[in-house]
Structures are given as C-alpha cells and as structure tokens.
Amino acid sequence: MSHRLLFVCMGNICRSPTAKGIFDRALAEARVAFESESAGTHDYHVGHPPDRRAVEAARRAGVDIGSDISRLLVRDDFHRFDRIFAMDRANLEHINAIRPDDATARVQLVMEMVPDYGMEEVPDPYYGGHTGFVQVIDMLDAAAEALVRELRS
To answer: Which pTM value belongs to this model?
Structure first.
C-alpha cells in the first residue's frame, strides 16, 4: 500500500516543501511506499521554487528541495491524498474551509504526530533568520520519525 501525503503551509515556499523533503527522506529510508506533494493555502508564490534560505537549510540537512514548485491547495487534493498535514492552525482553518463534504483525506496538524515535542505548530521562518529554518527542520524530523513508526506498526 502506498501512502499519499500532502504538506501544506501558507505560500508553499518554506515549511511545506521542507516537510515534503524531510518526510520523503524518512519514508524512503524506512522503505515505506509513498507519494507526496506540497501546497499552499495562498497564491502568493505559485509557480516559484522554495525560498533560497529553506533550500540552503534543507541542503545542509541532506535534503534537496530545490526542484519543488509552489502550487495552490485545491479541492481535488482532498480525494487524491490520504493525509493532509497543516503546518499551523491558521493554515488548518484555510484547509478545512475548502474541504468538500465528501473528502476522504485525513487532515491534521503535522506536529500532532509528536504531541510531546512541546510545540503544536511549525513556526513560519520566512521573516526570521537562519535559526528559524533549522528549527523547522528539527521539528519536521521528529514528526517524520513518528509517522514512520506509525506506518510500520
């Protein structure tokens, strides 16, 4: 069985492409069958690659996200994916606002995977410095490891 995962943030240039890259690596290393994409709830950066700072932080963590291209979350995603992971509550609200009544995807905050982490939302590093991007990677690593454990059990 292949798991279909979608990672969603606001502009789809920082957190969600980073999440896709981190989860892709963890699932591939665990030999879990999956497909994944990332999307944004707002169309600010549609058609653009990830933020250069996100690309650099991911590269330093051993993950290449440079070829991702931003796209908007669409209603069809609720049928194409098994799980949709929101980076924060504001984006979770946007996701649920367009969620069709017959949606099949499970929608949740990504950090629900690690409730003992101490942070419920992945903070947006866009207006901060390098340390914000590194923090995002650390958080997503923990969530990805938790998903691997869940899917293996």
So the answer is: 0.97
